[in-house]
């Protein structure tokens, strides 16, 4: 990839990067049919994409980049033709947001943010950087003085700049540096809003990236009607009368589980399956969300170091009210118990949400292995 001439999109952040990577590729296929999304996926690894780049110089490469991959990048240490990020800054870089995560590796939030900031270190003023104006850490990224032209996405604020894509009054408004104009409205915006607040951010980032690489708003609107479901990201794996089963195994932080609870609470009762391995994260906010929306009898916990921290936070809120936490050693045991509840309450619209909110390493190879096993047991017990 040292001499790759292809347009490069690089996407990082705590939440949403896999969805944005895949949705961006989906939009780009309106013009570049062979566009592939690659990076943090069990299906299409980064190295496979390197071979494709040598065969096709025009198709954009859309890459999901983790903080672990970024932490070694430095403008002082890397030669001009470095392999990382195709030997140059990405043509469009996206930082989705930043939340507490991976502190078992980075130790501090500042170190974590500095690793993420490396995504724009080698960019030039002819390239673009997309930041989430609503996320508090965006100010830190701006303090690192990115050279690229900065575009903001926002749901709630009007950025003090002429370059942005925002959701305002049920419309999507684009600022190109000269004027503001409504680029999307009506039913397509209503469709996106039904996917939850986090997915509105994901849509804004992916749509703006595609537009900056030459996809018209008309084509973006057309392809927005068929946005792909992302594997293990709030993935609906079973849907029938009064029952929806959601596999969110890639939700490896408490914030991810909070997002899932908020999205599916609107659809009726939730049975939440959560828990796993700790990454030096905090669980008090998740505990508050669970207390607000999940009955103790509908909370099923997969044992692990993060689970114990969550239980401790829940006890502080007197959530269990004298009841014993339902902690299990295997996913299959949990689903057998969930099935018993569903057999007696089949008439009540229910969403079974598997959103661990933590890592997987105490019981699984990774989040993909965990999600695959959840899908397998769901098929065995519910289909």
Automatic annotation (TrEMBL):
GO molecular function: ATP binding; UDP-N-acetylmuramoylalanine-D-glutamate ligase activity
Pathway: Cell wall biogenesis; peptidoglycan biosynthesis
GO biological process, one term: cell division
Superkingdom: Bacteria
PANTHER family: UDP-N-ACETYLMURAMOYLALANINE--D-GLUTAMATE LIGASE (PTHR43692:SF1)
UniProt KW Membrane keyword: no
Keywords, in A-Z order: ATP-binding, Cytoplasm, Ligase, Nucleotide-binding
Transmembrane parts of this sequence: none
Name of the protein in question: UDP-N-acetylmuramoylalanine-D-glutamate ligase
Mur ligase central domain span: 11-209
InterPro entries: Mur-like_cat_sf, Mur_ligase_C_dom_sf, Mur_ligase_cen, MurD
Main subcellular localisation: cytoplasm
GO cellular component, one term: cytoplasm
Compartments reported by the entry: Cytoplasm
């Amino acid at each position: 990839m040292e001499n790759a001439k292809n347009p490069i999109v690089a996407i990082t952040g705590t939440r949403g990067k896999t969805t944005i990577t895949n949705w961006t590729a989906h939009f780009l296929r309106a013009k570049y049919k062979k566009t592939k999304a690659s990076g943090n996926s069990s299906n299409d690894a980064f190295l496979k994409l390197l071979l494709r780049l040598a065969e096709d110089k025009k198709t954009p490469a859309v890459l999901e980049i983790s903080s672990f991959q970024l932490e070694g990048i430095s403008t002082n240490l890397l030669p001009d033709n470095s392999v990382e990020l195709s030997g140059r800054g990405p043509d469009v870089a996206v930082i989705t947001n930043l939340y507490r995560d991976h502190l078992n590796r980075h130790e501090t939030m500042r170190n974590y943010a500095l690793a993420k900031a490396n995504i724009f270190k080698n960019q030039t003023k002819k390239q673009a950087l997309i930041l989430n104006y609503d996320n508090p850490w965006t100010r830190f990224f701006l303090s690192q003085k990115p050279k690229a032209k900065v575009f903001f996405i926002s749901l709630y604020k009007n950025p003090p700049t002429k370059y942005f894509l925002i959701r305002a009054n049920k419309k999507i408004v684009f600022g190109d540096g000269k004027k503001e104009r409504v680029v999307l409205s009506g039913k397509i915006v209503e469709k996106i809003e039904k996917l939850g607040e986090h997915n509105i951010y994901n849509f804004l980032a992916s749509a703006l990236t595609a537009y900056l690489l030459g996809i018209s708003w008309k084509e973006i609107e057309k392809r927005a009607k068929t946005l792909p479901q992302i594997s293990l990201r709030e993935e609906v794996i079973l849907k029938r009368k009064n029952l929806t089963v959601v596999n969110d195994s890639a939700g490896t932080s408490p914030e991810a589980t909070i997002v899932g609870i908020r999205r599916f609470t609107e659809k009726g009762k939730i049975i939440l399956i959560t828990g796993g391995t700790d990454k030096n994260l905090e669980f008090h906010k998740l505990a508050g969300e669970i207390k607000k929306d999940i009955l103790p009898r509908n909370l099923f916990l997969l044992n692990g170091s993060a689970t114990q921290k969550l239980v401790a936070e829940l006890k502080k809120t007197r959530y269990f009210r004298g009841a014993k936490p339902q902690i299990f050693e295997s996913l299959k045991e949990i689903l057998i118990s969930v099935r018993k509840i569903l057999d007696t309450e089949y008439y009540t619209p229910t969403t079974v949400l598997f959103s661990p909110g933590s890592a997987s390493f105490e019981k699984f190879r990774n989040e993909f292995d965990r999600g695959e096993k959840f899908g397998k047991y769901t098929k065995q017990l519910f289909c």
